[in-house]
Structure formats: structure tokens, C-alpha cells
Specification:
Number of strands of chain B: 0
Low-confidence stretches of chain A: none
Radius of gyration of chain A: 24 Å
CATH topology of chain A: MetI-like fold
Shape of chain B: flat
Strand content of chain A: under 5%
CATH architecture of chain A: Orthogonal Bundle
CATH architecture of one domain in chain B: Orthogonal Bundle
Number of helices of chain B: 9
Distance between the termini of chain B: 49 Å
Strand content of chain B: under 5%
CATH class of chain A: Mainly Alpha
Oligomer: heterodimer
Structural class of chain A: mainly alpha
Shape of chain A: flat
Mean pLDDT of chain B: 90
Helix content of chain B: over 70%
Largest sheet of chain B: none
Order of helices and strands of chain B: HHHHHHHHH
Structural class of chain B: mainly alpha
CATH topology of one domain in chain B: MetI-like fold
Radius of gyration of chain B: 21 Å
Low-confidence stretches of chain B: none
Largest sheet of chain A: none
């Protein structure tokens, strides 16, 4: 006597026994991967916003060689750019607990004992260091004529910064910034090393639970690739919008 | 501070492993980079496609993901391939191999772009002149392309190397007894995680600072006789 099999059971059978990747298992855990992607995006985006906001004043101070601030800011960016993000995160998350005064302070309970906060703080400082340096370069590269024109119009220093220097510098920094955003997304895998379930964290969990390396890590790979694709499409759009005047013109071509 | 001194040999051996890992990955990445750049600049469109797919893939995937895929999944595929083709026997992929393989593969893609740009910066006429006086492609590469390519590639090469050193820290996550792994183990056992991680922090800072100084010096050497605007 043959038993009837539903199509679903047939799919499960193929997936477990014949397919090189157990796609039904991946489909079962897809929601976990989406939550992982949310965490990855949440921390990356928040860190980019906070770090970016920090970088603007720091870059201005560096570009104009502020008498007291230039040295310390240089030291900050040098130290954060010269060491691995993993070590920075470990130092904050595992390291700070060594000190009693940290554990007894008001910051301990909601903030410094939580991996989420530790990651956010470290990521923000890290991206602030990188962004400061290339934004400084973009500010220093402002054309002399633009500044002279702004002065000739009678703009104050603050007006000149707000209307002329920063808008141009942000435009020039855009290609480098798109690299920084993708670099930050790549670096966010460090989250999975401090017990957080980001995309890679879910992949590692799947590997640990079912002992299936390909299913976990290839799915994670696909998720990261999709995110990088979306980010680079967005930056292509913005570069077209804000750097359109720099695109090479060619006769008779639409591109 | 006493505990650092007590565990100095563990930290030093970890540093040695990290440096070995970085240098081996660098060698592999230069190899991948040269092949990739040659493929991108070749007339063969399959080669160009493959090299473009390679660099696009690497831009899309974080290095730790590839490392884990290679470490946990690579063993199986390498040995399946070996038994099907009969070319090799059992190969064990340990943490060091997985680290060198994945970091070399990832940075090979960045090196591809570095070398491609450097080769494109050499005026085409020089290579044509070399061919016209009867040099073989290998001689052209050795006498004309390489010496100038190094000069053009060095700034970006320096940058790639600095990022590569920092990427080696990730190998501790798959359990290689490198600097980070040794230090966190020691830090846990004496309950001074900050002290030990701070030592790692300083050692990495020294490594990147020394490489920075050394490669800048090399850049100056290769730029001897070139006018700077």
C-alpha cells in the first residue's frame, strides 16, 4: 500500500536528501535572518548617523588646524583607524567590567553592560574617526575662488561654511562616504562576536544547531550582498543627483 | 601591569602568529591581485567577466562570513573535490589555512583594483615601444610595466596592507591562537580583560604605525627622480 504524499512533504524530502542546500530549512528560519538584518541595519545606520554628526565639527577643526583641538583630534582618528574594530569592541564590552568604578557608575546598568550599547558606542567612534579624515580632505580641497567669491559677497565665516564650503565638501566626499558605509556594514559582523544576533549571528546559530555550514553562511552571504547592492544603488542615485555636473560629457551618447 | 609581564611569552607568540598570518595573506592577495588585474585588462571577455564577478562578490560579502564558510564548510568541499578528481588526498583546513585563504581572497580583490589602476597609469606607448623593439611580453612586464607599476600602486597598496593587518584580528573568532585570542584567554584567567585587550590595542597600533612609516619610506624611494606638482 502506498501512502499519499503531499507536495509539501515531497519538497521537504527533496530539500533534505537531494538538494545541495537544504532550502526548506533556510525558508523555515528566514524570519530569524530578517530580524538579524534589522539588527545589522539598525546599529550600522545609528552609528553612521551619530558618527557622521560627530565628524563634521571634528573635520572642520582639523581642516582649519585649530590651535588646541587639532592635536587631540588627530590622535583620536589615528588611534581608532590604526586598530581593529574587533579589539575596540572587546575593550569596551569585555574590558570595562574590570573596573569597579565603571560597574558602580550610573552608566553601567542600562548602557555599558549591554552589548547593543557597547557596539553602538564603539561603532560610532570608529566611523567618526574615518569620516573625519576624508571630510577634512574634502574641506581642504575647496577651490580658492569659491572662498574668495563668498568673501567678496560679504558672507560671515559661518555663512561661508554653511552655504559654500560644507555643501561642496559633502559632494566631494560622497564617493568616499559610500565606501565608508559599505565598510561599516562589513565591519558590523563583529556584532556576532559579542552575543548579538545580527545576520552572521543567525548564520552561526544555524550552523551550531544543525551543523550545516553552507545553509547558515551562504544565506548570510546572500543577505549581505543584497544590502550592499541596495546601498550602492542608493549612492549611485545620489551621485547622479549631486555630482551630475562632474560627469564626463560625450557627444551623442545618453549616458 | 605585572600580569602582562607574567604572560609576555603568550602575547609575543600571539603577535608572531598574527604577523605570519598577515604576511602569508598578503602574499596570497598579491598573487590573486596580479592574476585578477591581468584578467581585467585582457582581451579575453570570459576572463574579464570572471574578474569582475570576483571583485563584485568581495565588495558584497564581509570577510568574516567568507572565513567561516571556508572554515566550517570548506573542509567538506575540498575533500569531496579531491576524492572525485583523485588529485589530492585528505586535506585538513585548520584555522590558519582558513584565515590565510579568506583574507588573501578578499584582499586579492582590492589588490586587483590597485594593480589595474597602476597598469593603466603607464602610458600605452611605452608598452608598444617595448613590443616594437622585439621584447617578449614577459620582458615588457619585467622591464617596463613592473618598475613603474610599483610606484603607482604603492599608495593604494599601503592602504590595503593597513586594512589587512586589522582584518587578521577576526581570525581569533574561529579560534586561531593569535594575539587577540591569547590575550582574551589570559585576560579572563587573571580577571584583567581590559589590561590585556589594551596591550593588544597598543601592539596593533605599533604594527600599523611601523608599516605606515616603512611603506612611506619605500614610496619616497620609488619616487626618486619624479617631479611632484
Amino acid at each position: 500500500m502506498t501512502t499519499e504524499r503531499t507536495f509539501f512533504e515531497y519538497l521537504v524530502h527533496v530539500s533534505e536528501n537531494q538538494s545541495p542546500l537544504d532550502f526548506m530549512l533556510i525558508a523555515d528560519h528566514l524570519d530569524k535572518f530578517f530580524f538579524g538584518a534589522l539588527l545589522t541595519l539598525e546599529i550600522t545606520a545609528l552609528a553612521l548617523v551619530i558618527g557622521g554628526a560627530m565628524a563634521v565639527p571634528l573635520a572642520i577643526a582639523r581642516a582649519y588646524r585649530h590651535r588646541w583641538l587639532n592635536g587631540p583630534i588627530w590622535a583620536f582618528t589615528y588611534v581608532f583607524r590604526g586598530t581593529p574594530l574587533l579589539v575596540q569592541v572587546y575593550l569596551v564590552y569585555y574590558g570595562l567590567a574590570q573596573f569597579d568604578f565603571v560597574r558602580e557608575s550610573f552608566l553601567w546598568n542600562p548602557v555599558l553592560s549591554s552589548p547593543w550599547w557597547c557596539a553602538l558606542i564603539t561603532f560610532s567612534l570608529n566611523t567618526a574617526a574615518y569620516t573625519t579624515e576624508f571630510l577634512r580632505g574634502a574641506i581642504e580641497n575647496t577651490a580658492k575662488g569659491e572662498i574668495e567669491a563668498a568673501k567678496a559677497c560679504g558672507m560671515s565665516k559661518i555663512q561661508m561654511m554653511r552655504r559654500v564650503i560644507l555643501p561642496g565638501a559633502f559632494r566631494r566626499a560622497l564617493p568616499a562616504y559610500s565606501n565608508e558605509v559599505i565598510f561599516m556594514l562589513h565591519s558590523s559582523v563583529v556584532l556576532s562576536t559579542i552575543t548579538l544576533q545580527d545576520i552572521l549571528g543567525v548564520g552561526r546559530w544555524l550552523n551550531g544547531r544543525y551543523y550545516l555550514a553552507y545553509e547558515g553562511f551562504i544565506t548570510a552571504m546572500v543577505f549581505y550582498m543584497a544590502l550592499v547592492f541596495l546601498i550602492s544603488q542608493a549612492f549611485k542615485f545620489w551621485e547622479k543627483k549631486w555630482l551630475g555636473h562632474l560627469r564626463p560629457r560625450t557627444a551623442g551618447s545618453t549616458r | 601591569m605585572d600580569s602582562i609581564w607574567e604572560y609576555r611569552s603568550l602575547l609575543l607568540s600571539g603577535t608572531a602568529v598574527t604577523i605570519q598570518l598577515a604576511l602569508a595573506s598578503l602574499a596570497l592577495s598579491v598573487l590573486f591581485g596580479l592574476v585578477g588585474a591581468a584578467a581585467k585588462l585582457s582581451a579575453n571577455h570570459i576572463g574579464r567577466r570572471a574578474a569582475n564577478a570576483y571583485t563584485t562578490l568581495i565588495r558584497g560579502v564581509p570577510d568574516l562570513v567568507l572565513m567561516m564558510l571556508l572554515f566550517y564548510g570548506g573542509q567538506q568541499i575540498v575533500n569531496d573535490l579531491g576524492s572525485v578528481t583523485g588529485l589530492w588526498g585528505y586535506i585538513e583546513i585548520n584555522q590558519f589555512t582558513a584565515g590565510v585563504g579568506s583574507i588573501g581572497f578578499v584582499f586579492g580583490a582590492y589588490m586587483t583594483e590597485t594593480f589595474r589602476g597602476a597598469i593603466l597609469a603607464i602610458p600605452r606607448g611605452q608598452i608598444e615601444a617595448g613590443v616594437s623593439v622585439g621584447m617578449t611580453p614577459l620582458t615588457v612586464f619585467r622591464r617596463i610595466t613592473w618598475p613603474q607599476m610599483v610606484r603607482h600602486a604603492l599608495p593604494s597598496f599601503t592602504n590595503n596592507w593597513l586594512v589587512l593587518i586589522k582584518a587578521t584580528a577576526l581570525v581569533s573568532v574561529i579560534g586561531l591562537h593569535d594575539l587577540v585570542w591569547n590575550a582574551s584567554t589570559a585576560g579572563r584567567s587573571v580577571r584583567e580583560p581590559f589590561t590585556f585587550m589594551f596591550a593588544v590595542f597598543i601592539i596593533y597600533l605599533l604594527l600599523t604605525a611601523c608599516s605606515d612609516v616603512g611603506l612611506r619610506w619605500l614610496e619616497r624611494r620609488y619616487n626618486v627622480g619624479i617631479d611632484r606638482g
